[in-house]
Specification:
59% of the residues lie in helices and 7% in strands. The chain has 180 residues and is mostly helical. It has a three-stranded mixed β-sheet with strand order 1-2-3.
Length: 180
């Protein structure tokens, strides 16, 4: 099992009183964690589709070669924003993408937490129930503790964002092919 044991010193592995999370709790937490990460991956893949469409390279490998070489998500979002802005889209379409991009930028902070926080198991103090959660490794019990239901909520919000990006992309493709 992979988790950071946290809480009173009696909760540490190898000491009497240490308990492991149940297999079901552990699995449910990691499924929610994995689904949230996978949902964010879908956000990034669909942003790439928008970038690739708006740069319209003649060779398919050019778009991925540019996009995935950029270091960091912010750079990939910035270059996608630039591609959409330079594409000649109508003002309302540019405004729509700008709103989507602002949401993406905001939700990328959640993605950073998913990537850099640690899965933990424990309790804040004696007498409290032990549980799995995602916590800041510097201070696992800070106000930013994420439990299974939080991860499920984030996955759903990422999925909603994916749908917005797909809808934008689909309308752009349809407009180019004259199907609008």
């Amino acid at each position: 099992m992979r988790y950071l044991p946290v809480g009173p010193s009696s909760d540490r592995p190898g000491l009497e009183g240490h308990q492991l999370p149940s297999e079901a709790e552990y699995n449910e937490f990691y499924i929610a964690y994995g689904e949230a990460m996978a949902a964010w991956s879908s956000v990034e893949q669909n942003i790439f589709a928008v970038f690739h469409f708006h740069t319209a390279p003649r060779e398919y490998a050019v778009g991925p070669g540019i996009y995935w070489t950029l270091q960091g998500f912010r750079a990939r979002l910035d270059v996608t924003n630039a591609a959409v802005a330079a594409s000649g889209r109508q003002t309302e379409q540019l405004e729509e993408w700008k709103k989507i991009s602002i949401k993406i930028k905001s939700k990328s902070l959640s993605r950073n937490i998913l990537a850099h926080y640690a899965p933990c198991y424990g309790r804040k103090r004696e007498g409290m129930r032990r549980e799995m959660f995602l916590g800041n490794p510097q201070n696992p019990f800070s106000d930013s503790v994420l439990k299974k239901h939080d991860l499920e909520h984030w996955a759903a919000s990422f999925d909603s964002l994916v749908n917005e990006v797909i809808m934008f992309f689909s309308r752009a493709v349809n407009e180019r092919s004259g199907q609008s």
